[in-house]
Model the fold of this input.
Amino acid sequence: MPKKGRRRAKSSDIGVRDRLLDAADRLFYREGVRAVGIDRVLAEADAAKASLYQHFGCKDQLVASYLERKTVDARAQIEAYLADTPPSQRALKFFDWVVEWAESKDFRGCPLQHTVTELTDAAHPARAIAYGQREWFTDRFLEWTMAAGVKDAKAVARALVVLFDGAVAGAEMDGPQRAKDARWMAKKLLAG
Amino acid sequence: MPKKGRRRAKSSDIGVRDRLLDAADRLFYREGVRAVGIDRVLAEADAAKASLYQHFGCKDQLVASYLERKTVDARAQIEAYLADTPPSQRALKFFDWVVEWAESKDFRGCPLQHTVTELTDAAHPARAIAYGQREWFTDRFLEWTMAAGVKDAKAVARALVVLFDGAVAGAEMDGPQRAKDARWMAKKLLAG
DNA sequence: TTGACAATAGACCGATCTGTCTGTATTGTC
DNA sequence: GACAATACAGACAGATCGGTCTATTGTCAA
Done:
């Protein structure tokens, strides 16, 4: 038997929790977590207030959960994107992914950067999620540069992190060309 | 004779307008413009509400004025920092300035990035200020790379913008090492 | 001394925010 | 049919928000 009872008529058949996270994702990413109130999320999710507080306890936790799901999805997406690329080529190929992301219609910068910018309280639960994802990125970059066999792999990996951050921050302000600029430079760096 | 009458006992002798901007600078930069309310600024500036609305009209305009003063100050500071450096060396020297900035006690990222992240309304007056300062940066980078005599100067200039954005965004999340990583890479790029 | 002016203090307004609470409808299981 | 679980609808509370307004104080110039 499935988990428990329940059933709903409206809004297709995903649970409230997922509907809330979907709505939070759309609104928080597009407009910022501080600019969007609980009521907006509820309306967008077509959910009741009690459901939100039942599942998440408070808004901060909803934000953290939204960010966590976003990071988990991003990892999976990146890994799938790179799956067919030989390890030695992945560092550069990753920047193709960044370019595609920056060119996508709804691109509005990096959720991790937004989190650190908007939620200045160091104890905010979303910050821990953000830092965890940062670690994943730095680990991957090191892995990819090692596989590429470049010399000074650690320094190159750190430089690629800077290029990645600059690509998304720059693309948020100036448009997707910044991501291409980053790719151009990454190629140069990995070649020599 | 000076401007007009007035006089105050407390808080030294700068005008209310400047006190308000100073307070706004401290609070907005440290905690974010959406996280800090008018009342916090007034308390920090030891000023009256009417003074704020007399000088700035609304909060959005205070934010824009705060950002404008910050960008004007930054330009002056950077130009002074580079004044003794021959033009051909300025591109790299600029990243020394970035490292010092990222290592400074109160560093909390780039106000321009914060503005674009926090104020998602494209019509917000602070956005125009931010875009103006972005142009100044891109113009300077092109000027410096041309003076450095590197080939492909335009592409290099764009890459340096990415490195700059990555330096400050990365330093905000991970610490000042990111700025050093950016400098390391800028040196490499400008050498070859 | 008087009047203009700049600034202060703070009450007040309506809107919005997060969060709580009550009550009701629907569903699956016994 | 009874019951528990889940979700919905929405009133409500308390705080805070940006912004307006009145009243008062202190300073300069005439």
The CA atoms of residues 9 and 76 of chain B lie 32 Å apart. Residues 1, 4-9, 37-39, 49-50, 53, 58-59 of chain B lie near DNA strand D (CB under 10 Å from a C1').
